[in-house]
Write a structure and sequence with these properties.
single chain; 131 residues; mainly alpha; two-stranded antiparallel sheet
Length: 131
């Protein structure tokens, strides 16, 4: 039950990254990754902190899944901006919008993503608040 609660907190913040992981490595490996992270990091008091611990664990482990690091950075930056109201800029090595739209629709982009240096600026929205 604790695993399910912690996993739901991570997925709440990292929805697109979770979809990428499920498509790239499958549910079994995704579950193992979460279990590994939870074994090395104590439970956090908020979904954003739980997601941050997972992102740090992925970095520590050096798991190499194409575009996962960038996507994790983007989603964590969105959550942090919602929490603290500070704008952030996130870089991608491919055009990010087709990737984000495809994952939002629950699929991996079918077309080749255009390579380059792209940035997304995340601005706070005074009408939204992440608790």
């Amino acid at each position: 039950m604790v695993f399910s609660f912690r996993a739901s907190m991570v997925v709440q913040v990292l929805k697109l990254s979770a979809r990428l992981l499920l498509r790239a490595v499958g549910p079994g490996v995704c579950r193992q990754m979460l279990n590994d992270a939870f074994a090395h990091h104590p439970p956090a008091l908020s979904a954003t902190l739980e997601a941050r611990a997972f992102v740090e664990h992925v970095k520590e482990r050096g798991w190499q899944i194409p575009l996962l690091a960038e996507l994790l950075g983007y989603e964590l930056a969105v959550a942090q901006t919602l929490s603290d109201g500070q704008p952030r800029v996130v870089s991608f090595p491919v055009e990010p919008l087709p990737l984000l739209w495809a994952l939002a629709e629950g699929r991996i982009p079918e077309e080749d993503l255009r390579q380059g240096h792209y940035e997304i600026e995340i601005q706070p929205d005074p009408n939204l608040l992440l608790i």
